Each structure stands twice: as structure tokens, then as C-alpha cells.
Amino acid sequence: MKDSDLVQIQRKPQLGDGTEEGAQAADGTGISRRKFLKILGSASATTVAAGCADSTKQKGYPNVKGDINQVPGVAVWYRSTCQECSAGCGITVRTREGRVVKVEGNRDHPINKGGLCALGQASVQALYDPDRIRQPLEKITDPSGASSWKPISWKSAISKAASAISAAQRGGPGGVGFLTGETSGSLKALIESFCGEFSGDHVTYDLLEPVPTAKASELVFGRYGIPQYRFEEAEVVVNFGADFLETWVSPCEYARAWAQSRRGESPSRFIHIESRLSLTGANADKWLMPKPGTEALVALGLLRILLDFGKGQNLAEDVRSQIADLAQSVTLEEVVSRSGVAREKILSVAEYLHRAKSSLVLAGGTAASSSEGLTLSVVAAFLNLVLSNVGKTVELGAMRTPQSSRGKVVQLLDDLSSGKTKVLLVHGTNPAFSLPADYGFQYALKNARLKQKEAGDKEYPIVVSFSSSLDETSELADLILPASHSLESWGDSAPYEGVWGVVQPAMTPVFDTKGIGDSLLEIGAKLGIESIGSGAKDFAAYVKARWKALYSQESLRGDFETWWRGVVEAGGYYRSNASQDRVRVKVNPEAFSIRPKSLEASSRGVDSEGLLLYPYPSVKTFDGRSANRPWLQELPDPMTQVVWDAWAELHPTTAAALGVERGDVVSVENYFGELELPVFVSDHVHPGMVAVPMGQGHKAYGRFAKAVASVGNVFDLLSNESSSGDGVALVGSKVSVKRGRGKHELVVVQGSDSQHGRHLAQTTFLSAATAASAHGEGHGAEHGEGHHAKVKQMFEQRKHPMYEWGLSIDLNACTGCSACVVACFAENNIPVVGKEVCR
């Protein structure tokens, strides 16, 4: 990000600066410099003086007012909680002169323990995004139907939002809907209190939340949620598709624990099972590539083999018997035939699990985001049960509870279409981009506006957005109350029991924005509802009041104010024994009736057999939320080394059959739409599918996101016909892939993806190496120390007898997550140069 993006440069018109104002500034009569020169006809002393005027002077005014308590040049650090995803990592924010300059991990936080992913490192770019919404906006539509945004005051914005809600609730319960991303802590409590006053629904939508895993835990363990996984305690890890080192649940937490398991004399063994090799899979010791949609079948085959080996003797007899009945529903021969995985490989994985004293089985990511996702997750949970992992590497005492619900989103859209829900409030999610178009989000909003007109109601805002950016959903809104960034706001985070993180402002707002909590409290006050926020004057007071209740609940000693100051300084409060609580496992009978089936995939609009579409998230763009960060756009994709682009990943045999190679454009098409993507040929994908990274193809969301708009949005090709538990299915559509027109050269910053026959370590004879390094014989007189001429210096050079800096990387622990690359962008102020310069 350039300095011009961080400050507003205000130039006063200068004589000779090339502007019309500068031209008119020649004198007070309004005679332009050009006319003045024409009158004189030749250069004169006056002209020379005017030509020598310093036109380069400019004044820079910071967007924030400096804190009088800060000393210029001295950094001030604040501890807070990252809000880029739902993991709840602790962060330490570095500020200079009242401005955030760097974000690091909080070493004392129990989740990330000092680590921070690429998305967290790039959060500062969302704060200083030049395309952020700078004040409340109202959409104005002229008689021709063209619409534009009109800046309005906060007083007017709050009044209009309150009026819309008041009008909506007159129609009865359900008139107000609130759609958000994952929330927790005080903000979640305030939103639910707000919705409760209007009998409205708080609906959560986050595409990447592992809902099938949480539902499977409820069926097998008796508790809905994501268990605590102890990678550091596992001798063997078998993973069915969960990209736990990239975007799944809590990557920083898992990466640290996984790295710990890889250190020492007996590192853990890691087997990855997925149809595409992800960055997580690239860190595995062994990769199995089953046919897409057959992962649950492979898991069930492993379960049968382990039961035959005698595992599961610790279980109650009736439970083990019913699990055995489930496992007996398939044979090993059927598993091999349908999945395409060799018998020897499956037996090898089963042997690893059988011999290990402790193990861990996971299922998640895109592999579990299909009609077979819940089945896969249930079988993985049964494997952990049979292997006695519960209580060792799988802890149920403190669980994350994802709130995202496909069913509730569908119901909300139905209510909008029918006119039951008249006003929709949106915060922290972008369904117009990340919800497949087949779900009909835009169609529902269109119907809601038609219902308003048919009812003859006075026109009021249908969609009120609290987004800080003009993303695709905000573009559809009628009123925008821009929320401050989390680095400018108060709040908190409660990812799971025993961990409470504080969110505190590290600087004053860059623009005229408010925290969403403050906006909701002001709307409530405008409506005269004092119960919203329990009478708190602002959201900071509301947060503090809830922490006071936590202080009493935890029976802590001492003065609350003293404790509260300590909590803010530490970045949160953590109860160390929370995850050690023993929980009794209670298997739901429904879990035993689950059976693997054929993958449900829509073939609408596909002429031939087609390929299975396999969208996947990455550390660069996640589900599209980070596409407006130029550091991440310029970050080479860890698996392909591509920057500023999206692509269609095809197996070499598939590419050969289509007659395409890297950079050729292919048409990826089905009933729902068409994308034109460049080909990236890789043997890391199954021949029966085309893998496309998600998150690119924005039509809005700022200049950096729109820079990659031409590739299109992969979510537009997904069907709503299948689901993954209560989650949106990513793997559920087939596409027709055909050669397109022209080339689209991908910018791959890696020179080559081949070793060209060279071994990892080069060897030669010592005598040959000595001869190769010898030089300078016969003219050594003019050479200085080290066989090189000594450079003459004007000043005496400082001696450095000891090395002052060094770096070592444990390649057993490094995952390739690329967070260090983004941190280098930030720490060293490396400019973003764009796609063409990268080329």
C-alpha cells in the first residue's frame, strides 16, 4: 500500500503547477499565466521568477488525530483479538503516532500462542483500504431508474434505519431479519437482544464454517460443536480433506500443534486423503487420491479393517456391535473398486492406525462439503471412538459451536420473497457473492421490493448494510451504516468455553464510521427501546458490563476495575482447565443408520458426462473476504505460485484429452452459468474433476478485488440441490469443460515446477570442486583478502566480529502457509506492483 493511501494529500494551488487554479493564481486579477506569457511575448525576470516557483511543495495531513499521550517516534502496543475469521486468535497491534502500522500474534494467547496467519497479517490493509466507505450512504434512484449513492449524516442514517424497522414490525413477527457472519461474545448477545425486541430472526451464514463436523459430533459424541484436536499428542494423523493448515477452523492453533508433533526423534506420521492435493496435503507423509465423493467409503473401509483387528474393545458392547454393523455394509473390494485407491494403500493406513498408541482422524474442508459430507464426518468420528482417541487427542470439554445454517438462510430468503420479512439487516457476510446464485438471494430482494409496492406501503429501506466496503451485497442495499474496523472498535470474542478475548481500538477511526454495536444501540434508543443493550450508553459500556458479569460468574477475587485493566492489557481472560472437563459420550441412534451413497451432483446444462466442479479455499482469498487485500493478491499461491488470478486446475490426462495446456482458456459451463478460465495443468487433482480456487471474480468490493473480475465467480456455477448436513455444498455440480478462444497467460513467479532431473543434493569429487573454485593464479598481487580486490573507502569501516542477525527454518515444522511473506510486505513496506510487473 502506498503512502498516498494512508494519508490525504491536500495541495494548495501553486503558480506553475499545471492546474487551472494554479494558472489563475498568477495575480489577483484572474489573468492566467498562459495569457500573461502571451502578453509579454518573451521571457523576462518576472517570468523567470514565476518559473522558479516551487510547485512540489505539498502538505500531508494524517487521517487520524494523534494521541497526546503518545510520544512521536515511540511505538505503542495494544492487545486485541483478530476478527478476520471465527478462530479468535490473540493479536498485538503496533501503533506509531496514533496509527496502526503492524499486527502480530499474541504470545500469551492460548489459541495461537504468537502465531498469525496471512489473513491476520493483512488485516491492516482492510483498515486503510482506499475503497472503504467513509460515511453513511443512502441509495438515490432517479426517474430513469439509475441509482447512485448519496452521503448522509449519521443522525439521518440512524433515523432512516429506525423508521424502516418500525414500519417492518407493524406487519407482525418476522418483519425484521438480521443476516450476519459468525459472531460471538457481546456482539452476538446484542444482536440477539435486538432481534428479540422485533420477533426477528438472527441468521448466520459463513460458507467455510465446518457445520458437518459439528453435526457429526452431536450424532456420535452427544454434543454439537467442533472438538479440541490435540495434534501434538497424536502419533498418526489421518485427514480426510480438512485444510487445517490453511483455512479450516483454527489454522494458527493447529499449525503450531502439528509442528510440535513433527519435532523430536519420533515425529508423527500424517496421511492425507482427498481428491485434490491441498497445501495441507502437501505437508503429509502420504497422500491418497480417491475418486471425488468416495472419501466416506474409504473411511468406512478403514473402520471395518480396524474392527477386524480388534479395535473398539473399550466401547459398550451394544455400541461396538452397531458400529460393526455399519462397517459391514461395505467390503474392502467394493471400497477399492469405487474409490480407485489401491488395496495395499488402504491396508497400510489401517496398519498405521492400529499400531499407534495415539492417533487422530479428521474430516472437513471441500471434501466434506457435499451430499456425503455428513456421512464422512460421522464415520471419522466413529474412527476416533473406536481408536480410543476421545479424551486424548479429541477433547469434548470445550467446543466451538458454528452457527451458520443453510436451512435458516433458505427460510430467510423464502420470508423475503413472500413479503413476511420486510427489512433485512446485513453485517459481516457477503451472500450476493459467496452464496451460490441458485439460492436466489437477489431474486428474494427483488420480490421483497415488489411486495412493498403491491402493499402500497410508504417506501423505506429494504436492505440496511453495516459493511465497511461496497461489496456485492452492499451494492444491493438501500442504506449503509458503515461499521468501523475491528482495530477501531470495542468488542470481545468467545470462541469456546474458557477463552474470552478482548477487542479494543488501537486507533481512532480513519473515517466517519461507527462500530456496529454503537449503531444498534443508537437505533434502539431512537425507537425508544431501552432494553436493547440493558441501558448501556455505548457498546464499550455494554461490553464492560458483560465482562463484569463474567467476573462474578468466575468467582474471581479482588477489585473488578483492577482485574479489567489487566484483562485489557493481556488481551483477554483464559481459564486453563476448561478443555479438561470430562464429557460422557452418548451416541445418537441416528448415527448408526448413516450409509455412504453415490455423490449427488447436478448435471443440468452439461451435454456429456462432464467433470465434477471442485471449488476450494486458499490462504490468499478464503471465500472471497480477503480479495481486497493487495498483499494477498500478490502473494504467490503456495501450490501453484500464481499471483493476481484464478484458474482451472486440470489433470494432465484430462488436459491432453481436451487438447489444452497451461495458459489456454477453457469454458467451464453448466445450467447456472459459464466461466472462462486459464488452464493450470497439475497431477495434484483427480482426472474426473476441475478444481477452481474460490474468492476471485468480484464485480464490487474495491479496486483490488475487481482487478481479478474477468475470471468470474465460481459460486455462480453451484447448485442448491444438495447440502452438507446443514451447510452449503461446494461439491455438487458437474460442468462441461471445453477449449475456449485465445490465451490467458498466468503469472507464475516460480521459474519452473520441475527439478529437470537434478537431485535434491548435488555431489561431486573433492578434487573437481577444488579445481572449479580456484581462480586468480598468476595475478594475485592485485587481489585483496578473499581473492577479491579491496574496495577503497572514504571512512573507517565499523568492524563486526560477531554476527548480529541470523535465521534458521525448521523444515519439519514449516507448513508453507506464507504468513511470513505477508509479514515481510508489512514489516519492510514492500510496495505492491500489480500483475503486469510481476510478469
What class do helices, strands and sheet pairing give? alpha/beta
Q: Residue-averaged pLDDT, rounded?
A: 86
The proportion of strand residues reads: 15-25%
Q: Assign an overall shape.
A: globular
Count every beta strand, where a strand is a DSSP E run of 2 or more residues.
29
Instruction: Profile the largest sheet.
Output: 7 strands, mixed
Tally the helices: 29
In the CATH scheme, what's the topology name of the largest domain?
Rossmann fold
| Low-confidence residue ranges | 1-29, 42-53, 780-784
Give the CA-CA distance, first to last residue.
19 Å
Major β-sheet strand ordering: 7-6-18-17-16-8-9
**Tally of discrete structural domains:** 4
CATH class of the largest domain: Alpha Beta
What is the helix content?
25-40%
Explain the overall architecture.
It is a single chain. By secondary structure, this protein is of the alpha/beta class. It folds into four domains: 60 residues, no CATH class; 239 residues, 3-Layer(aba) Sandwich (Rossmann fold), CATH 3.40.50.740; 180 residues, Dimethylsulfoxide Reductase, domain 2, CATH 3.40.228.10; 195 residues, Barwin-like endoglucanases, CATH 2.40.40.20. Strands 7-6-18-17-16-8-9 form a seven-stranded mixed sheet, sandwiched between helices. A six-stranded mixed sheet has the order 23-25-24-29-22-26. A hairpin with an 8-residue loop joins strand 3 and strand 4. The longest helix has 16 residues. It starts with a helix and ends with a helix.
